[in-house]
């Protein structure tokens, strides 16, 4: 048996809800083989981030090299990249990163920053290389200057990101204050709207990581982009609805539903 291999380039979350830990659980639950390059080691739990230690660039490169030289990687996702230097390092590898899903992680659900402010503009370079970029409304506002409050504005965000060079943008509706969650997938020639009921829960830690990993996993299995996104959104809805109660804080999404 040889499952497709997915690489996650992201930060470690000691609390297990987000980051590399969420990615690997999601990838394995999706029937692929998960590999990783850790950018930063965070000390955190369900209540917040206590500290963060960035790895030297050469150690991040060494991990990516070790994976790429040994495995036939079918899809890649990026999560917490922490600094402009790390983003630029990933851009340098872009030609060798197939089915690249970029989750432009900036701030944790607890409000803690996971990206240095001067790195925000460098994200454009990585988005230009991506198969899919998956911003929430806050990240969309930083990346495009539009803070989407409705479906039309989410579509405008997606169009701007596709103009930057991404094959597609999934503008996530979880942070947009309308009753039904509306995610908007924009490609160069199509717009797909995915609606699902809002689930009242605070256990959303790891939702962005889980969604982007689920989509990368489906791309690795050979799904086309729209099918992979629909499958990822469906998985995340179930993962949030599970209302996983772990730790003393708001909990986390379930990664293996
Ligand atoms: N990556 C790491 C290492 C994190 O700690 C977090 C949030 O705490 C994230 C990514 C983003 O998490 P989410 O999936 O909730 O957007």
From TrEMBL:
One GO term (biological process): thiamine biosynthetic process
A cellular component term, taken from the record's GO annotations: cytosol
Asked if Glycoprotein is a keyword of the record, the answer is no
Question: Which keywords does the record carry?
Answer: ATP-binding, Kinase, Nucleotide-binding, Transferase
Q: Where is the Pyridoxamine kinase/Phosphomethylpyrimidine kinase domain?
A: 13-254
> Superkingdom, according to UniProt?
Archaea
Q: Name one GO molecular function term.
A: hydroxymethylpyrimidine kinase activity
Q: What is this protein called?
A: Hydroxymethylpyrimidine/phosphomethylpyrimidine kinase
Q: Which organism is it from?
A: Halapricum desulfuricans
Q: Which residues of the full protein are shown?
A: 1 to 257 of 426
């Amino acid at each position: 048996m040889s499952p497709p291999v997915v690489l996650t380039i992201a930060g470690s979350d000691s609390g297990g809800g987000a980051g590399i830990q969420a990615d690997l659980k999601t990838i394995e639950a999706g029937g692929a083989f998960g590999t990783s390059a850790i950018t930063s080691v965070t000390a955190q739990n369900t209540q917040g981030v206590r500290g963060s230690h960035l790895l030297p660039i050469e150690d991040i490169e060494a991990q990516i090299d070790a994976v790429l030289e040994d495995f036939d990687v079918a899809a890649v996702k990026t999560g917490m990249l922490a600094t402009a230097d790390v983003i630029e390092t990933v851009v340098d590898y872009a030609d060798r990163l197939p089915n690249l899903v970029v989750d432009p992680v900036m701030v944790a659900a607890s409000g803690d920053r996971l990206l240095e402010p001067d790195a925000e503009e460098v994200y454009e370079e990585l988005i230009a290389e991506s198969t899919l970029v998956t911003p929430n409304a806050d990240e969309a506002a930083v990346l495009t200057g539009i803070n989407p409050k409705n479906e039309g504005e989410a579509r405008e965000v997606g169009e701007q990101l596709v103009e930057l060079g991404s094959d597609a943008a999934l503008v996530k509706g979880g942070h947009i204050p309308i009753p039904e969650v509306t995610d908007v997938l924009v490609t160069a020639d199509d717009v797909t709207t995915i609606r699902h009921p809002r689930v009242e829960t605070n256990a959303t830690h790891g939702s962005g990581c889980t969604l982007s990993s689920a989509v990368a996993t489906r791309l690795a299995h050979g799904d086309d982009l729209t099918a992979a996104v629909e499958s990822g959104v469906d998985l995340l809805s179930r993962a949030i609805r599970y209302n996983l109660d772990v730790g003393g804080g708001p909990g986390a999404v379930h990664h293996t539903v």
